[in-house]
Amino acid sequence: MRIARAVEQQVQDMLGKPGSRQRARLKKPVWIIAFVAFVSLFVLAVFVYTAQRSGSCSMFSSRGCSTNQILINTPSSRSRPLTDDEIASHVVIREILHMPHAEPKNPKIAFMFLTPGSLPYELLWEKFFEGHEGSFTVYVHASRERPHHVSRYFMNRDIHSGEVEWGKISMVEAERRLLANALQDQDNMQFVLLSDSCVPLHAFEYVYNYLIFTNVSFIDCFEDPGPHGMGRYSDHMLPEVDVKDFRKGSQWFSMKRQHAIIVMADNLYYTKFKLYCKPGMEGNKNCYSDEHYLPTLFHMMDPGGMANWSVTHADWSEEKWHPKAFRAQDISYELLKNITSIDESLHITSDEKRVVMIRPCLWNGLRRPCFLFARKFLPDALGNMINLFNNYTRI
Ligand SMILES: *[C@@H]1O[C@H](CO)[C@@H](O)[C@H](O)[C@H]1NC(C)=O
Ligand SMILES: *[C@@H]1O[C@H](CO)[C@@H](O)[C@H](O)[C@H]1NC(C)=O
Ligand SMILES: *[C@@H]1O[C@H](CO)[C@@H](O)[C@H](O)[C@H]1NC(C)=O
Ligand SMILES: *[C@@H]1O[C@H](CO)[C@@H](O)[C@H](O)[C@H]1NC(C)=O
Q1: Closest ligand to Cα 307
Q2: pTM of the predicted model over 0.90
Q3: What is the C-alpha separation between 291 and 289, in angstroms, rounded?
Q4: Which one of 45, 182, 244, 294 has the fewest beta carbons within 10 angstroms of its own beta carbon?
Q5: Are 109 and 188 in contact (CB under 8 A)?
Q6: Which residue spans traverse the membrane (predicted)?
């Protein structure tokens, strides 16, 4: 980067800063100006070329920073030597990211349901899955009671589960359990986490193509300097997790296979969050691992590999502790069309400035609707959703 900056300086000098040199040049013949412009262009091209070659975070590179560079350049590692555990962890993660992956003949999507008990929307999901056998697998983690299944797609799909307490590390443990089970199927390429109040927003083919033909994970991630973001950070996470790297995001992810393997392989960062990101930390800090662990881990390890938004919509417009819950009387074709037409992601910081960050949802570089699923839909809305399914999923 130092070389790049030096060249940039030269370019700026040659293009002419305001001052006496420029005024002098203007008096000279036109061919000198043309020559200077030509040389400037050449130097600029060399600058772009070297910046890309060195894998730096060039402003001209659409890819952003290359992975190699990030591992060497994480803010926390720049000023200190890495610990033995960090070196071990970084080589494993880098290796996984660079592993050539064999494309299965029949790539599938793993639909992983995290629920306390029965799933009220099984019959809607059945309409969604119908006719696509062989392109998906279902996994159910029921933490409180054995679910009563009403759809054939959900029968015998319960995995061994454990207790889940809201906001605690047991939530992340359950997510890891689902990933571990779903990874056993070599054909699963994207792993979607869903809840008992989630509904599909599109027909199966649409969701399948959206998730199979993307090479990023849809993990929600943003920087929140406020009390519900960095305010939850504890210095106990040092040195491995610096407050500068602490990120926030909704837990409802869809991640690619490589990233699911990284979650399995990570013990170092997981343990940090398990010990130091929990409700009642240091007396009054309520840190919720399920909202911080994955965004922070992937922000540090593979920022270019995630979309930074979740494909599961939630309506936070009421600005309450939980998103708006939709009841039977709220369900209409217009509501669903409104949700499926959203094509920009929205994040709001929790400090008093309440900075609103709006970004277009770019799918392989194209602007497209952000959401494939939505929550929270209350059980009484099932009938209305089934009646409307064929309508609202028509493109
Ligand atoms: C994803 O694929 C696009 C197009 O092939 C490519 O430009 C981009 O670098 C890839 N991103 C990652 C994280 O592999
Ligand atoms: C996601 O955010 C990170 C910064 O945390 C950025 O480097 C990356 O390019 C973003 N991903 C996309 C697809 O824009
Ligand atoms: C749908 O969006 C329009 C335009 O923003 C809004 O006026 C309308 O109230 C919305 N309808 C529902 C049912 O959310
Ligand atoms: C649903 O589709 C049917 C058949 O195409 C159509 O007649 C009806 O108006 C649609 N309903 C809504 C709410 O769009």
Answers
A1: 2
A2: no
A3: 5
A4: 45
A5: yes
A6: 30-51
